[in-house]
Design a protein that fits this description.
Layout (H helix, E strand, L loop, with lengths): L2 H14 L3 H14 L1 H5 L2 E3 L11 H9 L3 E8 L2 E7 L5 E3 L5 E3 L6 E2 L6 E4 L3 E3 L4 E2 L5 H6 L6 E4 L5 E2 L15 E3 L6
Parallel strand pairs: 1-2, 1-7, 7-10, 8-11, 10-12
Antiparallel strand pairs: 2-3, 3-6, 4-5, 8-9
Amino acid sequence: MNKQELREKYLLIRKSIQDKEKRSLIIIKKIIETSFYQEAHTIALYKNLPSEVDTNELINRCLQDNKIVVLPRVIDDNLSFYRIDTSEVFTKSNFGILEPKEDPTKEVDKSTIDLIIVPGVCFDLEHNRLGFGKGFYDRYLDGINIPSIAICFDEQVLKEELIPTNENDMKTRLIITDKNKY
């Protein structure tokens, strides 16, 4: 299958997944147990879409653990990450994703991020990621060595085939699902 066919197939699969809240908590527990999380001071996360792993509890846990939490905002064709706190007010992007307000005083340099949690439509066992096709995370991660953890439900991991890739596609370091770590 090509990328668009995979994207369409796995968006439908993701939408049909049941017990997202319960399964999201299992994924969050696994993240917190990793050395990546435990050693990280600044963690880049994202606000989830309704069909994705719920990241709200993870954001709250990071803040409780005195981690610096940064969330992305799309500006032009690029991601910028902004520090948030418990009183943050979010705005909805053109893509329907909640983002922090653009505030130059809260923007963080990518060199200060210790761990990045990345979303995706699906992943394969080679740690390839298929997103929505805009390349925001691939461009952001290009040329830097931030450990990245993909989080998804186990149904979103291709076990029998690979996602078609090119030189611009960035791999994740680890994939955490409700059933496995890859």
